[in-house]
């Protein structure tokens, strides 16, 4: 869609600009929008040529900054784009016979295991559409705060003053991921202390939340060292495969991320990981409450994969 006639701007270009204004990184913007970095660069260059001035200061290649013009354009465009996007989404829903949509972002990959919750919600509310979306581990709560998703399924704890934690959705043990040629791969299971002998990836997320999956110390007080920063599961698994790090994951990843180069070893002396839906307190709707009620009525799913 093109706005403002022949000299206007493509709606997709506006989306690219607003996303880059949030991420301030060409690579993350491209990944978030599922386009190439070249497409992002072209869209921004086209807008800058149209306006006759730069929107971003690119002096620092690792983190660009908005220029004063860029900040003004961001502030002017954001409410316009959001309103237009919402109008188009409502029109599409109406055309498909739905009256509303609930978007659930999933940090864990086990959406298939949770299908009884999705199916029950849809059966109870046939006029509401349920969409299950992937959610990143990097800056995990940003999507909720931006309005990209209405509910986020995440591991606990979550201690954010603007977020509400819903009923327990599922629990499960943990596994340690190592290369198949690692000496530990010969074992049937390992202790938490074994994790302290290995380097683990670093995630750009609140420290307390990361420690809900990967503790900072073992029960004996040994520090579990962090190493390279990763932005997603694919990057973490690539580092595990190469032997640079090990990974501590929920046990269900051994089914969803099965690979010939990685062994998943049950960790025998860690508590289970707990997952729950989370949402913005100020954005709680009838749909969110209905989803929480569905989870509460069905009770939590217990994964015994690694027990």
Automatic annotation (TrEMBL):
What positions does the domain HTH lysR-type occupy?
A: 9-67
Q: Which domain of life is it from?
A: Bacteria
Q: Which residues form a coiled coil?
A: none
Query: According to its record, what are the GO cellular component terms?
Result: protein-DNA complex
The UniProt entry, under InterPro entries, shows:
LysR_HTH_N, LysR_subst-bd, WH-like_DNA-bd_sf, WH_DNA-bd_sf
Q: What keywords sit in the KW lines?
A: DNA-binding, Transcription, Transcription regulation
Q: What PANTHER family does the database record attribute to this sequence?
A: HCA OPERON TRANSCRIPTIONAL ACTIVATOR HCAR (PTHR30346:SF0), TRANSCRIPTIONAL DUAL REGULATOR HCAR-RELATED (PTHR30346)
Which family, according to UniProt? Belongs to the LysR transcriptional regulatory family.
The protein's name in its UniProt record? LysR family transcriptional regulator
Tell me the lineage of the source organism. Bacteria, Bacillati, Actinomycetota, Actinomycetes, Pseudonocardiales
């Amino acid at each position: 869609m093109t706005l403002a006639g022949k000299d206007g701007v493509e709606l997709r270009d506006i989306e690219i600009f607003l996303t880059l204004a949030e991420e301030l990184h060409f690579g993350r913007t491209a990944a978030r929008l599922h386009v190439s970095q070249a497409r992002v660069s072209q869209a921004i260059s086209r807008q800058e040529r149209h306006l006759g001035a730069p929107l971003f200061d690119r002096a620092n290649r690792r983190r660009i900054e908005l220029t004063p013009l860029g900040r003004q354009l961001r502030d002017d465009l954001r409410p316009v784009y959001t309103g237009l996007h919402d109008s188009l989404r409502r029109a599409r829903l109406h055309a498909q016979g739905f009256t509303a949509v609930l978007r659930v972002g999933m940090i864990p990959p086990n959406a298939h295991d949770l299908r009884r919750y999705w199916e029950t919600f849809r059966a109870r509310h046939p006029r509401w559409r349920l969409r299950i979306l992937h959610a990143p581990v990097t800056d995990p709560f940003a999507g909720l705060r931006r309005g990209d998703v209405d509910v986020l399924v995440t591991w606990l704890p979550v201690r954010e003053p603007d977020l509400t934690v819903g009923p327990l959705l599922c629990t499960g043990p943990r596994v340690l991921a190592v290369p198949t040629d690692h000496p530990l791969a010969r074992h049937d299971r390992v202790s938490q202390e074994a994790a302290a002998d290995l380097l683990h990836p670093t995630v750009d997320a609140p420290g307390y939340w990361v420690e809900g999956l990967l503790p900072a110390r073992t029960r004996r007080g040994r520090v579990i060292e962090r190493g390279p920063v990763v932005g997603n599961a694919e990057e973490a698994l690539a580092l595990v495969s190469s032997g640079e790090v090990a990974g501590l994951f929920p046990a269900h990843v051994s089914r969803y991320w099965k690979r010939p180069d990685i062994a998943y070893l049950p960790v025998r002396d860690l508590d289970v990981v707990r997952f729950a839906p989370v949402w913005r307190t100020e954005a709680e709707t009838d749909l969110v409450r209905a989803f929480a009620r569905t989870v509460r009525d069905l009770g939590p799913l217990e994964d015994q994969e690694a027990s």
